[in-house]
Amino acid sequence: MPATTLRETAARGVGAEPIPARLAGRIASIDLVRGAVMILMAIDHVRVYSGLPAGGPTAGIFFTRWITHFCAPAFVFLAGTSAFLHGRRHGGLPGFLLTRGLWLVLLELTVVRVAWTFNLDFAHYLLAGVIWVLGWSMVVLAGLARLPIGVVGAFGVVLIAGHNLADPHLESLMSQLGEGPRAALWKILYLGFFAGPVRLGAAGPDLTVLYSLIPWVGVMAAGYAFGWVMVDPVRRDRVCLALGFGATALFLVLRGLNLYGDPRPWSLPAPGEGDPPMPALFSFLNTTKYPASLAFLLMTLGPTIGLIPLLDGARGALARWIIIFGRVPFFYYLLHIPLIHALALVVSRIRLGTASPWLFANHPMGNPPAPDGYPWGLPLLYMVWLVAILMLYPACRWFADLKARGGSRWLRYL
């Protein structure tokens, strides 16, 4: 299909014209990137149960956390891209996004919550994690998808680039909020868990908002518009490289000069406070994830987008192995948390002689009690991660084959 025809079709919105047969299949580079970030995601979730802090003080711990920062942005962004491609293949995208988004929110607050904690104490603790924000972003995209794709893309970019304008006002806003519906809405939309849990009624549970809707709704909208780039192999390489390297360069300039895009400026270590340049590098790369700053998203999405055309020709057993995870990302997600949690119980039993009560607590993101002697070393963390990935592969391959054969339309919701 000529590029002009593609542009005209995209401008009219989703479902205006069936995708050509040569584009009807999956795009291998997207599955490969998504599979890689799913594998990396498991590193950080093993780290949660290892008891190691989220970054620092050593280089090994810092980069164990930092490398997983690429996961959530790629996960949400490529979910938007997949939504665009799904709409071109099947039509009926708004309805599908609405129902799937609400389904994801329900699973986050039930199945995923139990997987994290291994308890049923719903009365005191709920977690709004990445699946929560993925679901609500799909609900918003269900409305946006009816608009021209340029409008959707502009909405996403403005939200990503502009939300840090609120940084100077956040402290005063948090001090004024107090409790009540207005405070709850602000925490869900933007402030997240740094402003405290959301009180769901006088006798209701606390909702810990790990992922606020802003700017993640914008990330999915931008990913949806990016789908227009991916449907044309000729345009794809050129635009991906330009966007990827451009975003990375913008990150280096904005972050390097502390111009804009992150509420926490980086700085050189003061004399006597460390051995440069490593502490300065930590400070430079330690961009804000909650809520995700412009610097954080440029740092992670830039290299991710730039890598896509370089992976188009990827071949071999390793690429095929990684692609399996990329074809069933949500199925993988639902399996990997309880599996890692169960492996942590096994490790605790072997090392401590008992299953640590901390592994059944309501706050798995917090550090275990110091006297517990619980935290692992990095070698054990990476060994458990590798075991988890090897155990997940057969199930993911089975499910990927099941989806490829078609059948029940409900498989689309996993």
Descriptive account of the structure:
With 414 residues, this protein is mostly helical. The chain has one domain. 63% of the residues lie in helices and 2% in strands. It is built from 16 helices and three strands. A three-stranded mixed beta sheet has the order 1-3-2. A hairpin with a 6-residue loop joins strand 2 and strand 3. Helix 2 crosses helix 14 and helix 5 runs parallel beside helix 15. The longest helix is centred in the C-terminal third of the chain and has 27 residues, at 378-404. Residues 1-24 have low confidence and may be disordered.
The low-pLDDT segments are 1-24
State the total count of DSSP E strands: 3
Give the C-alpha Rg. 21 Å
Read across the widest sheet, the strand sequence of neighbours is 1-3-2
* Assembly state of the chains shown: single chain
The secondary-structure class comes to mainly alpha
